[in-house]
Amino acid sequence: MHQPDHVIRRAELPAPSQPNLRLPRPDDDRLLFGRVNWLQLRDGLSLHCSDCEELQDFVTENVVGPRLSFVLFLDGQSEVSYDGLSLTLGHPARRRSPEGVALAMNEPVLFRRHARRGQHIRKLVVSLTPEWFDRCDGGAGGGAVRQFMQSHLAPRVWKPSARLLTLAEQMLNPPDYDPLLERLYLESRALDIACEALGSLGDAPTESTAGLRPHEQQRVRRLTDLLDSGAADGWTLECIAREMGVNANTLQRQFRAVRGTTVFEYLRARRLTQARQALERDGASVTEAAWLAGYNSPANFATAFKRQFGISPRQIRARL
């Protein structure tokens, strides 16, 4: 997967997608520029990663077998359909924070995706087949997970944690390992994505909601919306807690129970993501991006940025 940016042409698509590729100009098969990969990490577990720009409008079609797919869009938007189900995955630039979508398919379906020229896509798709679950201690258990597996084309949305977004960035920019270690690195993170997505479906207490009453969970959702809006940038924890109507220690405990991170770790991750977008989309300098992320020192910013994304700000700039 560790590869330089390049033009992806028709021949690099997975074999099932090539025959049904529809192009406005059949003589031009330049589809994408960046990094795209489709990996079979092991039997029943596959990973698709994209960090690329769509070079033209085109449509791909292929038949997808039974599976659970977990789609995580970091940037960009795609129009897709599964048989009669049409979905818009991702979000317009600068409008919303990343979302994940979980989808079960109990029978083969026709998958269709519409690419749009100029759209920059950064996404991960983790897929698990029923056979993979069968090998995991005889099946997928019961409760909400089993119920979801038995649903068909009934998408569920979940909001990925700050930790999971960090793992996703690491998967898009993995260390320069040898192929075996890289696959182990990617597999562990792919399973983390699947685990968090499935955990969000649970009707029993999970790590993200255990011990919290409904109004406390609602408070954390309101706090997350506040943090995502940027309105609380520069506030102290005590100011944020007053806004939420609770003391700081209680707020921190409840937020950590749901989001898996502290309030300020979440804020830092969000501002680093904004800084990355400024580097990639707006051509900001490293100093400007550091200021946007709240760092007076570009060196400290570079250290935090690489810890978050697995790549330095200067490497991001060099790819433009």
Write the layout of secondary structure elements.
Elements (H helix, E strand, L loop, with lengths): L5 E4 L20 E13 L2 E10 L3 E7 L2 E9 L1 E6 L2 E6 L8 E7 L3 E7 L4 E9 L1 H6 L7 H8 L5 E3 L3 H11 L6 H21 L14 H16 L7 H8 L3 H12 L3 H19 L4 H7 L5 H12 L3 H6 L2
Antiparallel strand pairs: 1-2, 2-3, 3-10, 4-9, 5-8, 5-10, 6-7, 6-9, 8-11
Structure overview:
The chain has 320 residues and is α+β, with helices and mostly antiparallel strands. The protein folds into 3 domains: 6-199, Jelly Rolls, CATH 2.60.120; 214-260; 265-318, no CATH class. The chain is 39% helix and 25% strand. The protein contains 11 helices and 11 strands. The protein has helices spanning 130-135, 143-150, 162-172, 179-199, 214-229, 237-244, 248-259, 263-281, 286-292, 298-309, 313-318; strands at residues 6-9, 30-42, 45-54, 58-64, 67-75, 77-82, 85-90, 99-105, 109-115, 120-128, 156-158. It has a 7-stranded antiparallel β-sheet. A 4-stranded antiparallel β-sheet has the order 4-9-6-7, with no helix packed on it. Strand 6 (77-82) and strand 7 form a beta hairpin. Helix 3 (162-172) runs antiparallel to helix 4 (179-199) and helix 8 packs antiparallel against helix 9. The longest helix is centred in the middle third of the chain and has 21 residues, at 179-199.
| Biggest sheet features | 7 strands, antiparallel
The N- to C-terminal Cα distance equals 20 Å
Q: What structural class is derived from the secondary structure elements?
A: alpha+beta
Number of helical stretches of at least 4 residues: 11
Provide the CATH architecture of the largest domain: Sandwich
CATH superfamily of the largest domain: Jelly Rolls
Please indicate the percent range of residues in DSSP E strands (runs of 2 or more).
25-35%
* Strand order across the largest sheet: 1-2-3-10-5-8-11
**Count of extended strands:** 11
How is the CATH topology of the largest domain named? Answer: Jelly Rolls
Estimate nothing, just give the exact number of structural domains.
Answer: 3
Low-confidence stretches: 203-210
Question: Percent of residues in helical segments?
Answer: 25-40%
CATH class of the largest domain: Mainly Beta
SSE arrangement, N to C = EEEEEEEEEEHHEHHHHHHHHH
Mean pLDDT: 84
